[in-house]
Amino acid sequence: MKKSTLVMMTLVLAVTLPANAQFGKLLGKGKSAGKKSGSFATVWESEFDNKATRLALCDGDGQYIIGTDDNSASVIDANGKAIWNGDYKKLTTNKTNNSEYQYTIWKEKGGYLFLFDKRSLGTDRVAVLDLATGKELWNSELYQDLIPKGGTKTEEGTDQGELETVKYIDELDSFLISQRNSVILVKANTGEKIWETNRFKGGVGKYVYDAKRNEIIMVNFKPTALGALFSGFKNQLVRINAANGDVLWDATFLGTIEKELVTRRAIIDLWIKGDKIFMYLDGMNVYDYNTGQKIWNVNYENDMAGANGGLFSGGKRSKIYRTIADPLFTNDAVYIVILGTRDRTKYVEKHDLNSGKLIWASEKITGAFCMPNIYLAGDKVLVQVGGKVQVQEYRLEETSSGLSAGLALGGFGGGTAKQWVPYIYWDYKAQKNSVLCLDDKTGTTAWRSEKFDKRITDLILDDNKTVFVGDGDEFYSYDIASGKQLYDVKHNDARVGKATDVIDFDDKVVVLSEKGLAAYNKKDGSRAYASEKIKGVDYFYHIGDNYFLRDQRNSKNIIYGIDMTNGETKGSVQSKGKGGSPKYGAGIDITSDGEYIFAFKGKKVEKIKVNN
After folding, report:
1. Does residue 152 have a pLDDT over 70?
2. What is the pTM of this model?
3. Cβ contact 168:147 at 8 Å
4. CA distances (Å), 239 to each of 164, 166, 180, 275, in order?
5. pLDDT of 503
6. Is the backbone of residue 379 left (phi > 0), alpha (psi -120 to 50) or beta?
7. Euclidean distance between CA atoms 462 and 146, whole angstroms
8. pLDDT grade, residue 83 (50/70/90)?
């Protein structure tokens, strides 16, 4: 399983944590050797050969664990033993040294460490190392201005880890590199140029690889690093022969590709459906795959630019995302949530997939801040009105820093400094909440429930016959066909606080809550269990056969392993360290099967076993 992660010079994104954290510590009474009830077991503790101030993470299988700083890398194996280490200027023949930007591409047996060494006057350097051996695979001084002047400002941890100007195409095991006058495809393992075209300008905002045709569909945007170099820039959607770089057609499109505040992910989507290309940007735009001709479009406002949650004032800037559901495709139709322009209402439209013809439009819903999910269940369409939204923000916080601490030691500076710290979390906004059920043939309202006066969770559908949903204090089940309420459970009787999220687990629905979690049997709503042992959970992960909950309050990062059959805590680890995967927060990484957790503090590494 490929996993891509990166690091920047000015900000190591911990997703929600300041950069001055410490090494992960096991919680509970268990010792580091052996495993006791309620505690994870430490498999081993080891150390990198450098300070690991940049990257500290594992590959998907936990076979390779890497730590890097500005000038060196160190890799250890699954047993905690050193594989290789060294300074970049000694590992690379072009003496790539101070790498402002580094990221990994994990492959089945190792992968690549891509290094960017920004210099002056057209002398930037890049180098790619083999993660399994530390050997240089290739280097180059041909590729310039890959990093914005002044360094990178934010981490793109959820956008495959690349720079705006470099895109790794996994299907081709190649890098697509943007330069001022062209884009160049190079082999990832050798650096050999496969092709170059001057018919595509800018960075790659989004791409889709068509394996049957060996072609790439991609859209461009003006990258920050090269922005000042472009004149007469135009939006492009292109179809390219992946073998030789021939541009088979070039289409233009309206709109501006925005980036998310913290992740810097390009906010655009592309799908290939048969002989059509669907582009989701300022509405739905559909193109003929063979000719690039626009077939139909539905333009409307959406939340792609992010709703404002504050400006750089009062020490915080935030944006709100995930307020509108992604398009829902079937074999012959697409369902789209529309944000009305004049009355600011929200409603659903069903369009014919081939012609774009409007089949029906639902009733308009007023007072809903978000409509984040739509579901198709037989001859009914279920619409979730209200729910949680994603908040991305920067907070100006006073934190300890190596620079200011050094100044303090020298007698001419303070020990703390203010810096913008990134946070990503999910939250509920006050709004009108309901479950709306539409007839799939006509779009008319079949039934609705508006019992959710405090909040509404996501919906869980069971065999397209029953839907489960909760508000802050109660948990409901409805027959989808008729809208009949099957049961109403007083969730507040579980004494775990208001519901925050729901998990579909076999014959149960697990309700994550402010002070713990409770599970209810789908058949009758009876409570299977309740646990008050965990508080402040704001996110969950289903990895392999394992479930994890996360608490990131008060600049902490705690990961809990949960046995969902009974609600018991397998163990927990609190990290106060740098590094880790942006997905799991500072100081933590988890293998792709969920069986092992890695905790990092500087050069220290701890491998933790999740199950017996």
Report:
1. no
2. 0.84
3. no
4. 20, 18, 20, 13
5. 94
6. alpha
7. 49
8. very high
